[in-house]
Amino acid sequence: MRALAAVARKELRQILRDRLTLMILLFIPALFLLLYGYALNFDIRNIRLAVQDQDGSSRSRALVSSFVNSGYFDLVASGHDPAAHARRIDANDVRAVLVIPDGFGRRIETRRPVRVQVVIDGDNANTATTVSAYAQAIVADFAAREAAPVGIAGPAGAPLVLEPRIWYNPQLRSTLFLVPGLIAYIAMITAVISTALSIVREKERGTMEQVRMSPLDPVSYVLGKTLPYLALSFASALIIILVAMALFDLPMRGSWLLLSLAIGLFLVGAQAQGLLISTVAETQQVAFQLALLSSFLPTFILSGFIFPISSMPAVVQAITHIVPARYFIVALRAIILKGADLVTFWQDFLALGIFAVIALGLASLRLSREWA
Amino acid sequence: MLGRLPYMVRKELLELRRNPALLRIVIVAPILQLTVLGYAATTDVQDIPVVIVDADRSVESRALVSKFEASANFVIAGLEPAVDRIDPWIERGDAWMALAIPAGYGDAVRAGRTAALQVVVDGTDSNSANVALGYARVLVATHGQALARARAPALASEPGIGADIRVWFNPDLESRDFMIPGIVALLLLVVTTNLSAMAIVREKELGTLEQLNVTPLARWELIAGKLLPFALIGMLDVVLVVAVAVGWFEVPMRGSIPLLFGMSLVYLLSTLGLGLFVSTISQTQQQAMMTTTFFFLTPMIYLSGFIFPIENMPAWIQPWTYLIPLRYFLVILRGIFLKGVGLEVLWPQALALFAWGAAMLTLATLRSTKRLA
After folding, report:
1. Do the chains contact at A297 and B26, CB–CB below 8 Å?
2. Cβ contacts of B119 on chain A, cutoff 8 Å
3. CB A86 within 8 A of CB A133
4. Best residue in B161, B230, B301 to probe A by mutation, most A CBs within 10 Å?
5. How far apart are CA A48 and CA A125, in angstroms?
6. Strands A96-100 and A114-121
7. ipTM confidence score
């Protein structure tokens, strides 16, 4: 215990002297949240629209202005040449082209059905799906307003109406969805990166021999080296959440105790993963590659942070079970957004605990082999 | 003309060969990751778990439920007798959506009155919630039209004003075709930046930089000697991941393959140049690692348009995205893969990427002073 305290004190002093590292670990995460919290959203607006109006009637102009007035589309180009519009899509200057056929206005007046065409750049399927839904809604709305007096609207009195109610996030703000994921991502990166080089650095520099000669046992050596970082990461995670509450109206509906417990379990697991990498790698460069490839991209893509896990193929869904961020994000969203208690998501806590124990076990096993 | 450069390159290659673990990682990991992440990175929403509260239990309500059952978008996660029983389903996330059919639904349908259905959606995943709600709307509207047609066949047959949606390049709205070029660019960024970020600081930390400094090696020779072997590995990675993208995931390859490789080389110059620059300004490998991850990789990934469209970002952030090489390479990759366009369209991006790489390499060369900092 005395040895542990001594190592921890030495490590802490080293961190305090390395101002850059300290600042990075403590404040950059909150700064990240600030930047990305504003920058990232799936709410699609300002869609660049080109119009090919071959009719030029008052009705076709009315349709164009209902696109512009919807608030979703910005009119950036118009013209009769389809090839010019195609080039604009190629160069990403426009995302959608509205083509109004000749005789559009006349057909509406003579009560004949008429179709307009909307060409959408499909390179981003997610955006394209949304743009298509907006366009369809605007045209349907236009049809109801313009054509109803003339009499070609749909059947009067819809037989079924849907009354949607959205829980937890009534405005469907993507910020509320993304912030817990960002917290997990930032915590994972800080924890793994702060420990991944710890032991391999001593190995590479040859100072491991000196450590081994000292009267330190491996356990207090490792704990002493990681506990200061654990405290640092924990503080930084709490700062992130406070910033999110202050700036992004993140509701904190659940218990702080559970939240701290979830963060603690997750950080211990992440640091143990970093330690494991540090004991396996022979050089810092290899450790860096392993740390990035095992934490950076999986936490980003396989955790449900952005991509819904239930849409993934079964094999990949199985793989996501070994990504601890998956459980952490579920727990965070449940505690912060839903105010759920432990009964509803104890499985995720259990999984976080199991991951931490396994990672710690493997790391200490590798370390004692290294020590001997 | 080449002078001492070949010796420097040979030294680097020897060192790489002596470190088989690193080589294995940078060759095998990108392929493995692309295979898994390529499947994972999809924004398509399928199999939405929905819990159904059928308070009516009539022939009509069962007809509606069977429509949800038959839809590929929904999976029925459970049935509950009353609306107040759905809370735990949504709280645990076992169901994303609840459909409540009120008592009297069948009577209303038979009598030709408007029947209201209630849908509760879990809004925590706003994107999926939006999509799920859209699917439910379409399904209910279609069912409603079928009911109306059955009621008064003449009334519902008249088509009004409608929109024909045509989606170019990706008619099935397959998000994988969009994501995989992005993952290719991302993997190359992560692997190569990190290779070169450690390169010079490692020699600094181990004390071997001094040995290099006393040789007659020029600064540019040091940088070029570090760069070339990594560029070789990077190009090997490009070939491998492009092969997986096209051969395994069947991402359409509509443009020119030589152009793709040429552009990848320019991109690698910028990522490797960035790494080398970080390496020259860092004192320890840990610093290099933190600087790369925090100040370069993370912002690049989030702000490059890889997933989050740049046009959705606030106006004050958008100009900053021009500083990100990944942004240009994404446009180039997606342009070549999906749109089949060439340099006549992509030259501004190509130019920006080239300028970025040249600037980084110049900075790295200037920073790598031969004195010991």
Report:
1. no
2. 162-165
3. no
4. B161
5. 16
6. antiparallel
7. 0.73
